[in-house]
Give the backbone structure.
Amino acid sequence: MKIASELVQTVKKAKYVAVLTGAGVSAESGIATFRDPDGLWAKLNPAELASVDGFMSNPKLVWSWYQHRRDIVHSTEPNKGHYAIAEMEKVFPEFALITQNVDRLHQSAGSNDVVELHGNIIENHCQKCKKPFLGETTLPDGELPRCSECGGMIRPSVVWFGENLPFEAMAKSEEIVESCDLFFSVGTSAEVYPAAALPVKAKQYGATLIEVNPNKTAISHYADFRLEAPSGIALPILLEKLKEIE
Ligand code: OAD
């Protein structure tokens, strides 16, 4: 894969690099994306599986779907794209990683301080009193876990459609886009807001925008550079090129 030397030079000069990732980064680990032709939302209904209303009307269905996704996540490993992003943290004077992914594979690859915009599917909390739940979620006879404090229903700690993003994660993301000088949008269709607004905001605040995605997206026309390839291929090559000009 060929990478323009202008792009490599721009990355080399960057002082504060920010990366926003989406489901595409985990695709090479074998985790399905949402909006690709074979993605999850092509076959499943997000209103049933990823909303508070869907959970309240059929909690067993929602639980079984998240248990299934957890099983997939626990049987997969980070790929070269995750590892390249973890390495980027060491390469630039300042670095920030914001993810929409809920699989925690960035952390498994060694990334620190990951801003999780959509929560994660590993942890659970009470839908009613919001307290974290550390108990067992796989109960006999298909019973569903309940909060020991208030009796409320326990749910995965992901952000569902119609819910607000975690305040701290959103505030941190705003701070990052205002301060970074280079912003990578990696493996996201940039269709779900407010995350989708971050790359364009970063550009408006003066950052150079690089998109890493084998396909064009809603924000491709804003990008200063595009690496039209899977992240597990493009990012390791980019890191190699950076080393060559050290
Ligand atoms: P999408 O499924 O919308 O987009 C995945 C993007 O990854 C597409 O643009 C693909 O072209 C790209 N892609 C596929 N394989 C790739 C690869 N190997 N390397 C790089 N890119 C690749 O996923 P998101 O943008 O993450 O929300 O979706 C945003 C949110 O919508 C998700 O966080 C989820 C979903 O509903 C919640 O769960 C709250």
Q: What stands out?
A: The pocket of 2'-O-acetyl adenosine-5-diphosphoribose is lined by residues 22-24, 27-28, 33-36, 39, 50, 100, 118, 158-159, 187-189, 191-192, 212-215, 217, 230-231 (CB under 6 Å). The first helix runs from residue 5 to 13. The two ends are 20 Å apart (CA to CA). The beta strands are 16-21, 94-99, 114-116, 119-126, 132-133, 154-158, 182-186, 208-212, 225-227.
